[in-house]
Structures are given as structure tokens and as C-alpha cells.
Amino acid sequence: MTSPRALLTAWNIRAKKQLGQNFLNDPNLARAIVEKAGLNSDDVVLEIGPGLGAITVPAAKAARRVIAVDKDGRIIDLLHTELMAAGIHNVEIREADILRVDLASIHRDASRQLVVMGNLPYNISSQVVVQLIHARRCVDRAVLMLQKEMAQRICAEPGSRDYGRLSVMLGYCAQTQVLMPVRASLFFPAPKIDSTVIGIRFADPPPVRADDEGLLFRVIKAAFGKRRKTLRNALSQSELKLDAATCQRLLTEAQIDPMRRAETLSVPGFVRLSNTIGNHCRLTEKGP
């Protein structure tokens, strides 16, 4: 593996800070990440931000096919050259913004659920995770490298300060686990914060199923929209269009103390609350 510094210098390319470009500089770590993904010869990998190919090459050697999506057209030719030098011919590179990519279309093309891999920039990591949640019927599992604090938020348990919207949404439909820490010094250019590799395995149907998944996600968003407030106040001041008295009654009906805060409520509690709100809206013939 040629060092990222040498490659970028040879091609007269500078990493773009606005794209969160920090290129992995350790081939052993790249191989370890691919091993954690548990790839086999039937898998189709969707790689988000392949960069200079550190993960792309070992993933392509282990999987049937890799579809690599990168927004930066400057490095596409460089990546093609690196793949050719490595004798890799089962990688398709697409220049695109992953947030605008139709994952269902890629799933249909692959004829199987995808394994998603990628080193995600902090500024889009939460959006990508939400995108995967909504498209999870197309995705079997994901192995993602995230900034340490984002990984902590995703894998957080109820009652912790990191527990939030993403924790609950993923807790509803997936199992998450921390796979390995990654020091900032293993990237070029080195970011200011360490990273963490996490694994996400989606479950369909979810263990505890909501009557209306869209409403569940809106309730979660509303509850954490004002996370320092009680659930009664956070919900009544949200886009759900429920007054405080109604929120008080619905929370009590769902066997949840209205004075609790969102970070104390488990996934089954959110599902129970969402179902209760949904029943109320159907009876009153109005939607939140």
C-alpha cells in the first residue's frame, strides 16, 4: 500500500477538509476492518467514500463485488489506477453524493442485501445512519468508521448522556457493537479526534414492532428535540401538535412518568408511547 501522502503528492491532490477527507494509512488496520465485516464470496459491498482504496482492495478480494461511491471526482482516476495495480477488477466506482444515492436501486442491481462499509465524515455520519435505517431492507449489515463521539452516541444505552435519537432509532431495528478503536495518527492528514469502528446488523422485523414506524421516528425526534425538558413538555412543544394536557394523559396511559426525560426511556418504552399516540390520533381522526 502506497502511503496516502505519497499518492496525493504524486497526483497533485490535496485532501479537502470540507469533505472530511482523512485517508487510512495502515494496511493492517484496513484488513482487520474487512475481517470484522465477515465478508464472503457471495457478498456485494457498498463502500461509502473509498478514498484511495485502503479498504476497497481487501474488501474486493473477499467479496463478489464492490460498489464504491465517492463524491470527489478528483480521486476517481487515482483510485482506478490503484485498483489496476492491485489486480482488482470487481470494483465499480460511482462519482456521487451518497446522500442522494438510491440504495434500493443498488440493492435491486445486486440481487441481494448489501454490506455497507465506509469511513464516514462527521458532518454526514448521522444522515448516512438515518438513510441506512430507512433503507434497511436493502442492507444486511454495516461496518462503519466514525468519529469516537458519534460512535458513542450510536451505541449508547438508556440513561447515559450520549443516548439520543440515533441510539433509539438503531436500537429499534438493529444490533450495534463497538468493534475497534482507531487512533487519529493512523490517518493522513490526521484528524483531531480518534475514531471507532462499529458494526450494525439490521433486524427485520424489529423485535418490538411499532404500529406506525414513521410516527415512532417522529416521536423519537420530538422527545429529543428539547432533551432537557420533561417528555410532557418536549412532546407538547414539538411538531406532533399535541397540547400539554393530552401529552400528560397519553404518557400516563403508556405507563410512562410524564416528568421523565427522553434519555431515560428505553426502545420498548418509545414504541409503547408511539402506539398510544397513534391510537389517540386515529380515535380523534387527526395525525400528528
UniProtKB/TrEMBL annotation:
Q: Can you tell me which residues bind S-adenosyl-L-methionine?
A: 22, 24, 49, 70, 97, 119
Query: Which GO molecular function, any one, fits this protein according to its record?
Result: RNA binding
Catalyzed reactions per annotation: adenosine(1518)/adenosine(1519) in 16S rRNA + 4 S-adenosyl-L-methionine = N(6)-dimethyladenosine(1518)/N(6)-dimethyladenosine(1519) in 16S rRNA + 4 S-adenosyl-L-homocysteine + 4 H(+)
EC number of the protein: 2.1.1.182
Localization terms from the record:
Cytoplasm
Q: Which family does it belong to?
A: Belongs to the class I-like SAM-binding methyltransferase superfamily. rRNA adenine N(6)-methyltransferase family. RsmA subfamily.
Assigned keywords, A-Z: Cytoplasm, Methyltransferase, RNA-binding, rRNA processing, S-adenosyl-L-methionine, Transferase
Q: What is its main location?
A: cytoplasm
Biological function? Specifically dimethylates two adjacent adenosines (A1518 and A1519) in the loop of a conserved hairpin near the 3'-end of 16S rRNA in the 30S particle. May play a critical role in biogenesis of 30S subunits.
Span of domain Ribosomal RNA adenine methylase transferase N-terminal: 29-204
Q: Write down any Gene Ontology CC term.
A: cytosol
Pfam families assigned to the protein according to its UniProt record, in alphabetical order:
RrnaAD (PF00398)
User: What PANTHER family does UniProt report for this protein, alphabetically?
Assistant: DIMETHYLADENOSINE TRANSFERASE, DIMETHYLADENOSINE TRANSFERASE-RELATED
InterPro entries the record matches: KsgA/Erm, rRNA_Ade_diMease-like_C, rRNA_Ade_methylase_Trfase_N, rRNA_adenine_dimethylase, SAM-dependent_MTases_sf
UniProt protein name: Ribosomal RNA small subunit methyltransferase A
